[in-house]
Amino acid sequence: MSGAPAQEPVTPYRVPAGVAEAEIREKSSRFLAILTPAPDEETAKTALAEIERRHPDASHCCFAWRLGQPPRERSSDAGEPAGTAGMPMLQVLRGAELSDVLAVVVRWFGGTKLGKGGLARAYAAAAREALAGLPVARRVPTVRRTLELPYDLLGAVKRLVHPPAVELVDESYGEQVRLVLQVHTERLEELEAALANLGLATCSRDHAGNGARSGA
Questions:
Q1: Which of 102, 134, 166 is the last residue of a domain?
Q2: What is the pLDDT of residues 73-89, one digit of tens each?
Q3: Mean pLDDT across the stretch 127-148?
Q4: What's the whole-number mean pLDDT along residues 120-148?
Q5: 56 to each of 51, 75, 122, 183, how far by Cα in Å?
Q6: Are residues 153 and 201 located together in one domain of the fold?
């Protein structure tokens, strides 16, 4: 008797478990690299703006980020010649297989031009130096689901909550109950089938970065 094919297990991915900074100097220019967690674009933009605010005298504030799984990527040369700053930093993050991470390298020009090759090497070297001191964790890809249900089904739904694979992250009570669940993506199909058997459907597909586990 044939059945539905088993779902592929979801592979945890590497994320920063803290913040790391490092500084290098190249021909009198100073490069300060900062790596910080960024589970979403809003967090990344806020962190970038704060770093720029802290260093108003910098010549350039270049960045790269990788968010989510599969990673969504973005980088900026912030006024440096095209391809000499953001992309070398992004390649360092790719090589480390990191996601949910923002890399910023702040440069103070020292008076001597480095050339395109020298710039690319300096920005990559600064990012690698910070990476060497970065604590790393593993995170399981998750999604959030929102449910609205009558009170008489609350007990049945709560019996489907089994942390860490299915976690209750928020609940509110009015005319109906509203629950927000965070679900490992490999358990999503199973959960939605169980809810459908209760006559319920979920809404919202906000990806989240919960499920972090310590270790490199």
A1: 134
A2: 999 999 999 999 999 99
A3: 91
A4: 93
A5: 9, 20, 21, 41
A6: yes
